[in-house]
Each structure stands twice: as C-alpha cells, then as structure tokens.
TrEMBL record:
Taxonomic source organism: Paenibacillus nanensis
Stated name of the protein: Uncharacterized protein
Length: 161
C-alpha cells in the first residue's frame, strides 16, 4: 500500500513540475510576442512623417499619425480591440495599457538622451523618434506561478532615406 501512495505522490510532484515548466515557457512566449509587437508599433509610429515640415526640409514626426499607427500595430499584433481589450482568440486575457507614448521631434537637440525614472528606462535617439512603454499581463493557464506583469519598452527612430 505504501508503494502505491509513494507512486501517486511522485506522479503529483512530476506533474506539478511539468505544469510549472509549461507555464514558464508560455510566459516567455508571451513576453517575446509582446516585445515584438511593441517594437513594431514604435517603429510604425516613428515612420509617420509630417509632410508639411518635410516640404520645408525638416524631418519631423506627425504626432497624431504616429499615435494612430502605434495603436493599430498593437491591435493587429496582439489581437486587441480599440480599447486594448483582447479579442476572442487572442493569447492575452487582460487589457494592454500604453503607459508611455512620447514623440521626440526635430525641436530637440540630438543625440537626445531619454530617461524615464518611473519605468527605469533610458535610451539615446540620434534623430526624431518614438518611445513607447506598454503594460502586458501574462495570461496564466495554471496557478502555480504568481501573476506576471511586464512593462515592455520600445523605441524607434525616424528613417529618412
């Protein structure tokens, strides 16, 4: 009888370890997908030229177009609605919140040193660009690990060529 109890206990331990590993792998996949989405959104935003300023020879980002492009890219890459709420079929469960969206334009002197102490982020921009920080919550499938909340950071520069 004790062998049967030992065998069941070992199976529970093995299964728990396996579930923990699966959960950690799913968390890493979520982090990587979210990081790519934030990077793509920042890059898309940074490419929104202000055509009037460009006509005057100034490379500058149109802030309204940049914000719209970033939102669209986040929505499409993370399968979100207009409010940042995951759609049916999305790998996320909680809304994605854009914590920081800043456009650094030609009015600044470059290289521009950006620092955000609240989210512990620093970057250097060599030309006009966009800084974006989004809050993403890992959709736990099992309750073996604590909830994970990431503040995913991204930055991109205007590419004029």
């Amino acid at each position: 009888m004790y062998k049967l109890v030992l065998m069941v206990a070992m199976m529970v331990i093995w299964l728990s370890a396996h579930v923990l590993q699966v959960e950690e792998e799913m968390a890493m996949k979520t982090l990587f997908q979210s990081k790519r989405a934030v990077n793509r959104a920042a890059h898309a935003a940074a490419q929104q030229l202000d055509k009037e300023a460009l006509g005057a020879g100034i490379a500058r980002i149109d802030e309204a177009l940049a914000e719209d492009a970033a939102e669209l890219y986040l929505q499409r890459n993370l399968q979100l609605d207009e409010n940042g709420v995951p759609l049916a079929g999305s790998f996320l469960r909680d809304p994605v919140e854009v914590l920081v969206f800043e456009v650094v334009n030609a009015e600044q002197s470059f290289p521009f040193y950006y620092r955000n102490d609240t989210y512990h982020y620093e970057t250097v921009l060599q030309r006009p660009g966009v800084i974006m920080i989004a809050k993403v919550v890992h959709p736990r499938r099992f309750s073996l690990i604590e909830p994970i909340v990431w503040e995913i950071k991204g930055a991109a520069e205007l590419v004029v060529g």
